[in-house]
Automatic annotation (TrEMBL):
Keyword rRNA-binding: no
Regions crossing the membrane: 21-40, 52-72, 84-104, 116-145, 157-177, 183-201, 233-258, 270-290, 302-329, 382-406
Superkingdom as given in the UniProt entry: Bacteria
Keywords, comma-separated and alphabetical: Cell membrane, Membrane, Transmembrane, Transmembrane helix, Transport
Membrane topology category: Multi-pass membrane protein
Cited Gene3D superfamilies: MFS general substrate transporter like domains
A Pfam match: MFS_3
PANTHER family recorded: ENTEROBACTIN EXPORTER ENTS, INTEGRAL MEMBRANE EFFLUX PROTEIN-RELATED
Compartment(s): Cell membrane
Coiled-coil parts of chain: none
CDD domains in alphabetical order: MFS_MefA_like
Protein name per UniProt: MFS transporter
Organism name: Gelidibacter pelagius
Amino acid sequence: MQQKPIKKDPYAALRIKEFNIFLMVRFALVFAWSMQFIIIEWEVYSITKDPWSLGLIGLMEIIPAVGIALFAGHIVDQKEKRGLLIKCILGFSTISFGLFLLTWPRIVGDWSTNEILYSVYFLVFCGGLVRAFIGPTIFSLIALIVPKKLYPNAATWSSSTWQVASVLGPALAGFSISWIGVHWSMCLIMAFALLALINLLRISKKPILNPKIGEPIMDSLKEGVRFVFKTKAILGALTLDMVAVLFGGAVALLPIFAQDILKVGPEGFGVLRAAPAVGAFLTMLITAYIPISKNAGMKLLAAIFGFGVSIIVFGLSSIFWISVAALFFSGVTDGVSMVIRQTILQLKTPDHMRGRVASVNSMFVGSSNELGAFESGLTAKLMGTVTAVVFGGTMTILTVVTTGIVSPSFRKLDLRKDIEAHGKEV
């Protein structure tokens, strides 16, 4: 008698209590971080009216984030994950308090523009140091909360939570700037950081699975880098997403579009930032019910191609609601690519190397968000804002086409066998 296939449960990971708490922690932390980044972008552009100053914000964060990424991954693999994340949140809260003071007229009323800018850049630089540890710690912690057979489902919910928070945070930033101003908006950021910390304390301490505690740091780093470069699926996904994010970083220029091109003010700025979040939420619902493991390579290529098209449409649009629609579809496609990439990383990374692999991921993809912001600011200065955005979208599409042509093995990537190796597909 033929056995009936086991019904997939789209909420399997959500039935684990600590995973739900983890999602609340991740949402609050990403929400606060992304909201803070946008508020600082708005403030810096408001006092300088210079796209180059926006690019420097991304540069100031990416230098430390990339510079110590591998070292941070080594530390994460050697330490208890919950305790390390607590320290990261405390560090972020300290930086937020510093920015709160820098946006207080009673404190900086007599300061020059350059003094304020240099102080902001210094705190953003410190934030890059903290960020180098946050990404690998979160990536490692999730694998200690859910069983391996639920990694694809957990990656879907975790990635979608990140995507929604990373756009809802800036969206609220736009509205809060209008409602209560830049200074008091920083209080909201500190409140969300506190919320993340309180919920994190509800998660129990986790074991350290690395059998090489005390391993020389250079040996540890070489092992992590070698693993990424010899695992073609991981290397392909990271490289593809890195280039796409690097050249598709048009959202860094949204303050310019809101203030000077579309002329919609902070309220319209909030709507523009919220549009990708709606698309990301739709992605969360779809990918939870429809597994993306089959033909994952082609789906990733198609998603990033669609992202590039959306960015071009956004750059060419001078009509507010067309711009909103383009950003909506950029959120949909970016959400799909993120879920697939995180699933690949979770399935193909050994437990004892998660910190180091996540650090390489942050160097390839996570930091390319800030490098993309720098690239967008630089190209906007050289080419003009609209031309810079269209250029970025075009480079994204060319990257996808080139990857599809030169890497047939990546086009054929299918994750179903990896899932079956960890248990039945969820």
